[in-house]
Design brief:
This protein is α/β, with parallel strands linked by helices and 476 residues long. It folds into 4 domains: 116 residues, Rossmann fold (3-Layer(aba) Sandwich), CATH 3.40.50; 163 residues, 3-Layer(aba) Sandwich (Rossmann fold), CATH 3.40.50; 70 residues, Helicase, Ruva Protein, domain 3 (Orthogonal Bundle), CATH 1.10.8; 70 residues, Homeodomain-like (Arc Repressor Mutant, subunit A). The protein is 41% helix and 12% strand. Strands 5-4-3-1-2-6 form a 6-stranded parallel beta sheet. A 5-stranded parallel beta sheet has the order 8-9-12-7-13. Strand 3, helix 4 and strand 4 form a beta-alpha-beta unit.
Length: 476
């Protein structure tokens, strides 16, 4: 039995936050979402421990425990769940589970049930052996990857349709407000398709001007324009055999829409400045947060392209329309961030739950995720209360001001800063926001799409902020 490997039988999003801690301890992490995949991994990698989440869709944890009794040397199994009771715990323990835990999974607890977790020296390479790949969590490509969290009827309907068409080559148009999870559904479609082991390539159509977007999509030949010093393969060629996601498709310039239509109909295109036709096998998914039919009516989007993209329409519901899914997602994100920051399990007060259910959520799931990270950091070890959400002009006041008072006294005694670099780090929120945005652009060398991803906002929001700063005389 290998003391270097741990198997998780769960949704990826419920366990991957703990993978960095395992890797730092010299451990490999495996991931499976069905009994066949789990047994295959155990037979091949002989893990020292198995963590199993019984609420995983389509998985029977009790059947696994019963089967484990018939296999000699089967590793110990720890059951973990977001909620449970003593009766359930005794039932799993009677079936042979080593332990029964309530989430989140944290490293300080996991290491107590592992054997030896000290890093082992790398073995001497054998002659003519292929170079070993960098150590990384072993993730299976099983159909359950990119599970969607939620039990509301509106989500289940969309999910059922997505599952039904996942293995087809049909184009899918995913629409919904910003932050509803359109890219997550696109990745779900890809990873549950026959192309799941091939490339998934995404491009934001709003992030680039027309001439650059055309080159990004279709590539260009050497000398096609100033600066084209060599041939470049476009995203469609890189996605050959796999899936292409066209994010914010309604932002695409009409001049490119005709060329895209040709790819969808004929599976071929010409590189910019090229004379040879390139043939590709790519499944196309597209997303939009705008009224695309209205754009068609206004002549801003080609009707024939709309029909070609809209073979399978997936309309994602807004978070405010998903009922109790709001609390389910809030608890999930809270567990994720407490694990990330090494904190204990946090609960919501009834007032906090009421606030969450009554809020309108204009930013949808993305806003909820960011809000839960903020609440986890502000709540510390106590229960999460409405004041920890720190919305709008409301001011959060910590319970204990003694440490802050001491710090401020030391600063005041030191006198004013002698240089701008010694200035206080405390500043108005809008100024802090501006500095974060400009810093993200600096770190991404001006790539607005990557900067928006780092900040957790849409490209459109970033663009509006930058336009606002330009009016203030800031060079961006």
């Amino acid at each position: 039995m290998s003391a270097r490997t741990v198997l998780f039988i769960a949704e990826p999003q419920s366990v991957t936050a703990i993978f960095p801690a395992l890797k730092e301890a010299g451990l490999q992490a495996g991931l499976a979402d069905n009994i066949t995949g789990a047994l295959g991994f155990i037979k091949k990698s002989d893990p020292c421990l198995v963590f199993c989440r019984p609420t995983l869709q389509g998985f029977d944890a009790k059947a696994l425990l019963e089967q484990a009794q018939t296999i000699e040397g089967f590793p110990p199994v720890v059951i973990f769940t977001a909620s449970g009771n003593a009766e359930q715990a005794m039932e799993y323990l009677d079936l042979g589970a080593r332990d029964y835990w309530i989430e989140p999974l944290v490293w300080d607890k996991i290491k107590l049930v592992l054997p030896d977790v000290k890093p082992e020296p790398d073995p001497e390479p054998e002659p003519k052996a292929k170079p070993a790949k960098p150590s990384a969590p072993a993730v299976s490509n099983a159909p359950g990857k990119f599970q969607i969290i939620g039990r509301h009827e509106a989500v289940l309907r969309v999910l059922a349709l997505a599952r039904q068409v996942a293995k087809s080559k049909a184009t899918v148009l995913i629409s919904g407000e910003s932050g509803t999870g359109k890219e997550l559904f696109a990745r779900y479609l890809h990873h549950n398709s026959d192309r799941g082991d091939k490339a998934f390539v995404a491009i934001n159509c709003a992030a680039l001007p027309e001439h650059l977007l055309e080159s990004e999509l279709f590539g260009h030949e050497k000398g096609a324009f100033t600066g084209a010093i060599s041939r470049k393969l476009g995203k469609f060629e890189l996605a050959d055999g796999g899936t292409m996601l066209l994010d914010e498709i309604t932002e695409m310039d009409p001049g490119l829409q005709a060329k895209l239509l040709r790819v969808l109909q004929e599976s071929e295109f010409d590189r910019v400045g090229g004379v040879e036709t390139v043939n590709v096998d790519v499944r196309v998914l597209a997303t939009t947060n705008r009224d695309i039919e209205g754009a068609v009516a206004e002549g801003k989007f080609r009707q024939d392209l709309f029909y070609r993209l809209n073979v399978i329409p997936l309309k994602l519901p807004s978070l405010k329309d998903r009922g109790d899914d709001i609390l389910t997602l809030a608890e999930y994100f809270t567990g994720k961030f407490t694990a990330t920051y090494g904190l204990g399990r946090l609960v919501f007060t009834e007032d906090a739950k009421k606030w969450l259910m009554n809020y309108e959520w204009p930013g949808n799931v993305r806003e909820l995720q960011n809000l839960m990270e903020r609440a986890v950091l502000l709540a510390g070890q106590g229960p999460i209360q409405p004041r920890h959400f720190l919305m709008g002009d409301e001011q959060w006041i910590p319970d204990d001001l003694s440490g802050i008072d001491a710090d401020q006294k030391a600063i005041n005694d030191a006198g004013p800063p002698s240089t701008p670099g010694e200035a206080l780090s405390v500043m108005p929120i809008h100024e802090m926001e501006k500095r974060l945005i400009l810093k993200s652009l600096e770190e991404t060398t001006g790539n607005r799409t990557r900067a928006a991803d780092l900040l957790g906002i849409s490209v459109r929001t970033l663009r509006n902020k930058l336009n606002e700063y330009k009016k203030q005389g800031v060079e961006v």
